[in-house]
Amino acid sequence: MKKILLFVICTVMLSGCTSLTRQEHMQLRELQAQGVTVDKPVGNFEKPASGVTAGALNLLPGIGNFYLGTGNAAESSHVLYGVLNLLTWPLSILWGVPEAAIDADNINKREMLYYYTYDEQGKQALKKAKITLTK
């Protein structure tokens, strides 16, 4: 029974990554081709999550996931992942640290796309820089 429970927990933990859709990947490539990335944005875009911070906080039991689940670009599913990391700590450090760092990066990319697609300041920044983004 313990092996089954451990297997279920590990499966849930490994499937818990924040991912980008194909459309989001294509939009990111369009922006990258025009010189816009999360690290080199145009306008006033600021990264809402830090990959280094999220990864480092996950050395503690699930704290990095709580950071991603309640921060500026909160993804509420990360609160559940934080609880699961808390329950499986210290083993959760093995998957929790890289998962939180990768998820923070994906959250930043998604938020950047939202900024340039829907936020008026973001739209104006792209227009001023003469950069186009297909919806």
Describe it.
This protein has helices at 2-14, 22-33, 51-57, 63-70, 77-87, 93-118, 120-128. It has 135 residues and is an all-alpha fold. It has one domain. The chain is elongated. The model has no long low-confidence stretch (mean pLDDT 83).
Overall number of structural domains: 1
Order of helices and strands: HHHHHHH
Using only C-alpha atoms, the radius of gyration works out to: 17 Å
For the record, give the distance between the C-alpha atoms at the N and C termini, rounded to a whole number.
48 Å
A few lines on this structure:
By secondary structure, the chain is mainly alpha-helical. It contains seven helices and no strands.
Features:
single chain, elongated, mainly alpha, 135 residues
How do the strands and helices of this protein lay out in sequence?
Blueprint: H1 2-14, H2 22-33, H3 51-57, H4 63-70, H5 77-87, H6 93-118, H7 120-128
Helix pairs in contact: 3-4, 3-6, 4-5, 6-7
